[in-house]
Amino acid sequence: MSLTTVDFRHFPLSDGDRVLDLGCGEGRHAITAYLEAAVTVIGLDLSLADLGTAVGRFREFEDLEDRTRRVDFACGSGLRLPFADAVFDKVICAEVLEHVPDYETMLREIHRVLKPGGQLAVSVPRFGPEWVCWQLSDAYHEVPGGHVRIFRKGQLRNAVERVDMVCYASHWAHGLHSPYWWLRCLFWSRGADVWPVRAYHRLLVWDLMKKPALTRVLEWLMNPLWGKSVVMYFQRGADSAT
């Protein structure tokens, strides 16, 4: 399975949960949720190309005989979610909000579709490592659909809590990946095939496939220093109205 940002030890799924993976991209979290528990997952994204990739990847993991869990993928906007109020137990929004000019509207929509007491896992690029990328390459974030802002952790936490969510856990993730993106930005005009970028990418693929103890320890040490993502977990107010 591809790299995930959400740590399901902080975001445990229960059998029967309805889960929304908002901005699912190629399906990494939607498929991981499907494998974690007997849940119903909807992966929503604006990109038909990414959704097509997600469907293809899911076929590798789908158990057609298991009727207790399922994943459906749909095209739609997080600014106007095509769902009724309070229908999801969990919402995942990983590496999405940095792309959205009106992210506060998306947060209100997430709150609307979450059940009272439901949980949200949200991640964005961490300020420091992302700032380095922006200094090394304008093209990194100016591509169509690219990053429109760099969040500070407190800024995002406050924005989510303003829509009646309470943060109960947070951590950094992907410390091994920050140097890759710094190299990628440094050599942006030469593409991903320049040898330092290619060599580091091979290391990341090896780490993903083998998960050796050495790189697990290195990432644990690197995450507090320059983890590429900040991940936060919230619970919707149990007694609040939509």
How much helicity do the residues have? 25-40%
Looking at this structure, what is the CATH superfamily of one domain? Vaccinia Virus protein VP39
| Average pLDDT, all residues | 95
**CATH fold node name of one domain:** Rossmann fold
| Order of helical and strand elements | EHEHEEHEHHHEHHHE
Name the beta content range. 15-25%
Cα separation of the termini: 35 Å
CATH architecture of one domain: 3-Layer(aba) Sandwich
Global outline: globular
Determine Rg (CA atoms, Å). 18 Å
Beta strand count: 7
Task: Write up this protein.
- By secondary structure, the chain is an alpha/beta fold.
- It has a domain at 18-125 and 140-174 and 228-236: 3-Layer(aba) Sandwich (Rossmann fold).
- The protein has nine helices and seven strands, in the order E-H-E-H-E-E-H-E-H-H-H-E-H-H-H-E.
- Strands 3-2-1-4-5-7-6 form a seven-stranded mixed β-sheet, with helices on both faces.
- Helix 1 (28-36) links the parallel strand 1 and strand 2 (40-45).
- The chain is globular, with a radius of gyration of 18 Å.
- The two termini are 35 Å apart.
- The mean pLDDT is 95.
Briefly say what this structure is.
With 242 residues, this protein is α/β, with parallel strands linked by helices. 39% of the residues lie in helices and 22% in strands.
Task: Chart the SSEs and their pairings.
Elements: E1 18-22, H1 28-36, E2 40-45, H2 48-59, E3 70-75, E4 88-94, H3 103-113, E5 114-125, H4 127-136, H5 139-142, H6 153-161, E6 165-173, H7 177-186, H8 195-210, H9 213-226, E7 229-236
